[in-house]
Amino acid sequence: MSTFILLLFALLTPHGPDSGPLPARPGSVSTETQTCIDCHEQYTPGIVEDWKSSRHSRMTPAEGLTRPNLERRVSATRVPAELEGTVVGCFECHSRNAASHADNFEHFGFQINVIVTPADCGTCHPVEAEQYGRGKKAHALDNLEKNPVYSLLVDAIVSMKSAVRGTLQPGKASGNARNETCYACHGTRVGVRGTRTVNTEAGEITVPVLTNWPNTGVGRINPDGSAGSCTSCHARHGFSLELARKPSTCGQCHLEPDVPAYNVYKESKHGNIEESLGHRWTWDAVPWKVGGDFTAPTCAACHNSLLVNAAGGVIAERSHTFDTRLWVRLFGLITSHPQPKSGATHTIKNADGLPLPTTFAGVPAAPFLISPEEQQARRSTMRRVCTACHGPGWVDGHFAKLDTTLSEADGMVLAATGLLAAAWDRKMADRKNPFDEALEQQWVRQWLFYANSVRYGSAMSGPDYVAFKNGWWELTNGLQRMHETVNPARKK
């Protein structure tokens, strides 16, 4: 076959939905978006080129609606008429729901929103936006700010302190400094404080002044009042599914010492396979075929991707709530517990009247946590995910091992809590703030760092994190130090 025929064949052959970057389709780009491109190609070329690599640049929402159900990435049953014939470009995203956006401003004749929010993405992806909105991620900022116990912990960690004549004096960290701590992942409240005029090569531009910005935290409160940031995972402006599925993306926030999921994954055999062979995988296929598109689970495979077997049978449905396959919450103050019913965990009240899923004695706040039946249903879903590759005996043995490890790690935390309670009773520490004194901070390490390391290490098969890397060794050592502090006469 001649080179000309081969080239013609390649040009005429339809590209599959995941065939990699294709050029944008100029004929389907709206006039408004083309105006944006003509200018921004000069001033922010990285943004434009990133968008050109995206599916948004080469497929209209109407075309997305024609895909078979399992292949569809547009969950809306219909889209606004003005979006049907154009690809999704700058104007299509940055002009949505203008009336609700405090960050909307006039920009060269167009009304533009600075920030694209989950409410805007929900125009085409309403199911994903709704699922995300009821999960813990969307409530991450509220769960930090509206839970007074967590707020005390944050203040103890990030508040400024200075030494005056040998005495620590508390202070207050600036908003910008605090926004680079817990709020970088949990999110900030992005507000609008007037406008400012900026001199650019294109002339003077008046733009909104955003407060607590920049930020891509998962629970960010946006200027339109919506919660969350789709770009935490689907980074703008390519919005790559591959990027969202890569473990390194989850690793932005889920890191040791407090949430060591990414570190444990990299140590595990699953992580070893992904790092060695992941370059061969089809990361952006929808649905995601186990054993065909990928050969070892990732964060997305276990937690939220639509998985199918070789025959196309559904193993697990897609979910953007992220905990719908999880029956137990590994992270928590202070012990593991059933998953909360609501992502707004600050609304929980335990038997002590605190907004925590368990009491300090480890008693679950059962009315706010999923039922045993729901726990079993979720466990069964995860079992289906695991048995797509492993035999039932292997999976059941792994789950049984996890159950035992959680129970024993929780027991070590309760022992540490008992020592702290004794110190409070003996006036060795002040219980008004359980996080600001040395003994209390050692107690925090016990459950926030060391027990979490054991739990995550066991769940995801990272043995060193169960044993020595912030695991049993540190848990045991810390407990011994607490014992010797609280009971100095009994030190051996």
CATH topology of the largest domain: Hydroxylamine Oxidoreductase, Chain A, domain 2
Q: How large is the radius of gyration?
A: 25 Å
Largest sheet: 3 strands, mixed
Uncertain residue ranges:
1-21
Shape type: globular
CATH class of the largest domain: Mainly Alpha
Distance between the termini: 86 Å
SS field, number of helical segments: 22
CATH architecture of the largest domain: Up-down Bundle
How large a portion of the residues is in β-strands, by DSSP E? 5-15%
Mean pLDDT, all residues: 91
What is the number of E strands? 11
Q: Looking across the biggest beta sheet, what order are the strands in?
A: 7-8-9
Q: Give the number of domains.
A: 3
Query: Helicity, in percent?
Result: 40-55%
Structural class: mainly alpha
Please describe what this structure looks like.
The chain is mostly helical and 492 residues long. The protein has three domains: 18-94, no CATH class; 117-237, no CATH class; 241-490, Hydroxylamine Oxidoreductase, Chain A, domain 2 (Up-down Bundle). 42% of the residues lie in helices and 9% in strands. The chain is built from 22 helices and eleven strands. It has helices at 3-12, 31-43, 45-52, 61-65, 81-84, 90-94, 118-121, 126-133, 140-145, 148-158, 175-178, 182-186, 241-245, 247-250, 261-267, 269-277, 299-303, 372-387, 392-425, 438-459, 463-467, 472-486; strands at 104-107, 110-113, 161-164, 167-170, 191-200, 203-211, 288-289, 307-308, 314-316, 328-329, 337-338. The strands form five sheets. It has a three-stranded mixed sheet with strand order 7-8-9, covered by helices on one side. Strand 5 (191-200) and strand 6 form a beta hairpin. Helix 19 (392-425) packs parallel to helix 22 (472-486) and helix 20 (438-459) packs antiparallel against helix 22. The radius of gyration is 25 Å and the shape is globular. It starts with a helix and ends in a 6-residue tail after the last helix.
